[in-house]
Design a protein that fits this description.
It is built from 22 helices and no strands. It is mainly α. It is globular. The relative contact order is 0.12.
């Protein structure tokens, strides 16, 4: 739609206002001197999972770092030359969330430079890979580790490794999308996991000793619940009343959105417009927060990052009906497996398991519960081999599950197809071709 691009590009100031809102929240929670000290701590921390900036630097510094990274993201996307779409909102939500635990305004640059160099060698515009470049900063902890590790640190080596990561991530993520068939929304997370599985053993063989971290803030629910809940309610109100759409039209659009499978690529912004998407973002954010709190979780840097990620992907695949079965699967796992819902890794799994929402939306809620159940176990073991160097650990786990489940479910459908009356639907499922990777996460 040729007329949609200018309208959506007018949303960039709104995203910049979002970063300013985060900045103001940060300065409301702490003094400028403490924030500066906290930012220094963030920069000088190795950042492996789980490094909660709220815990090590304070809420104010964590939010200010998030605001800076979000603003950088908005400017990169704005001037990359690519049109505004649902992936734009995904990346902004992702960067805002993960800059509360692992990404900072310095360690992201080498990877971005690597993708820029790749585009130069391929003679394509940076905009074609800007989204992937920003998402690939999931491996930023590797940069921080190489620079800061005592006895092994090297800024030139860190820059070189970051450039290599950014250089290879474009073609790699395009390939990994194909093997997941759009069932794992965190496609770049899976690609980053593969890269980390190669880099970390090489680093260890050269004498490095990266290790999983545990920095987890607790007791801040009363502080953060009003902030997160207020943001979600604001988005719902903006969707209902600020998009120049009658309320009935917004509701009708949202109802249609809920009927989609969410299989990637599903650009809800292009499909339904901003009003239903904003409502979807607010509703999903509230679902994520309430599920976390009702299961005894903590609102802190990583979990708020998970909620912001859900809200971002609410423009590209996630909605209330396809995320809740997967969450239920993780909760079910806590009943029969030897871990508790109040474990930090499990709290993150409850939120980030929604990467498998397309399985629920495409095949039905029982398969969504199965995917979440499997994810709750697999994700607990996928961070150790890479020593916490891949921030999108749930994306890596989700990719493994999607690769295994998709052909198995398809085979089940084929087996049942002869006896089911709704044959056309199952034929369409089994003969769908993989969707193009350009707009995938």
């Amino acid at each position: 739609m040729p007329q949609s691009r200018p309208r959506y590009e007018q949303m960039y100031p709104d995203l910049l206002a979002f970063s300013i809102l985060i900045l103001l929240a940060g300065f409301c929670l702490d003094s400028p001197s403490n924030i500066l000290t906290g930012l220094r701590t963030i920069i000088l921390t190795e950042d492996a999972l789980i490094t909660d900036y709220v815990r090590i630097a304070g809420p104010g510094a964590a939010l200010v770092n998030s605001a800076i990274v979000t603003a950088i993201t908005v400017f990169i996307l704005r001037y990359s030359g690519e049109p505004f779409n649902g992936t734009t909102l995904v990346v902004v939500g992702l960067m805002a969330g993960f800059s509360l635990f692992g990404k900072n305004f310095l360690n992201i640059w080498p990877i971005l430079a690597g993708t820029w160099l790749y585009c130069k060698t391929r003679r394509v515009t940076f905009g074609k890979f800007a989204y992937i470049s920003l998402m690939a900063t999931a491996l930023s902890p590797i940069i921080s580790y190489i620079v800061l590790d005592n006895g092994w640190g090297s800024l030139p080596l860190a820059l070189l490794v970051g450039v290599v990561i950014g250089f290879v991530m474009g073609p790699l993520s395009a390939y990994t999308y194909k093997v997941q068939n759009g069932m794992n929304l965190y496609n770049v997370g899976f690609a980053c996991g593969l890269v980390a599985m190669m880099l970390v053993p090489v680093m260890a063989s050269l004498g490095a000793t990266p290790a999983v971290q545990y920095n987890w803030a607790v007791g801040l629910n009363r502080l953060f619940a009003p902030l997160v809940g207020g943001l979600c309610l604001l988005l719902i109100l903006l969707g209902c009343f600020a998009c120049r759409k009658p309320l009935w039209a917004v509701w009708a659009g949202y109802q249609l959105l809920l009927k989609t499978s969410g299989r990637s690529p599903s650009d809800f912004l292009r499909m339904f417009g901003p009003a239903p998407v904003l409502v979807n973002m607010g509703v999903n954010g509230l679902i994520g927060m309430f599920v976390l709190l009702l299961t005894g979780g903590d609102l802190n840097g990583p979990t708020i990052g998970g909620i912001l990620t859900i809200m971002g992907f609410s423009a590209f695949g996630k909605h209330a009906l396809n995320i809740t079965p997967v969450m239920a699967g993780v909760i079910l796992g806590s009943v029969v497996m030897r871990w508790s819902l109040d474990d930090s890794s499990t709290q993150l799994a409850i939120l980030f398991c929604t990467t498998l929402a397309p399985i629920s939306g495409y095949f039905g809620w029982p398969y969504g519960i199965l995917a979440g159940f499997l994810h709750s176990a697999v994700v607990l073991f996928t961070s150790s081999p890479v020593a916490g160097m891949n921030l999108y650990n749930n994306g890596f786990s989700g990719g493994l599950i999607a690769i295994v489940l998709y052909p198995l479910i398809i085979d089940i459908f084929q087996h049942r197809n002869a006896t089911l009356e709704n044959k056309d639907f199952f034929d369409s499922v089994t003969h769908d071709e993989p969707l193009p990777p350009e707009d995938s996460e």
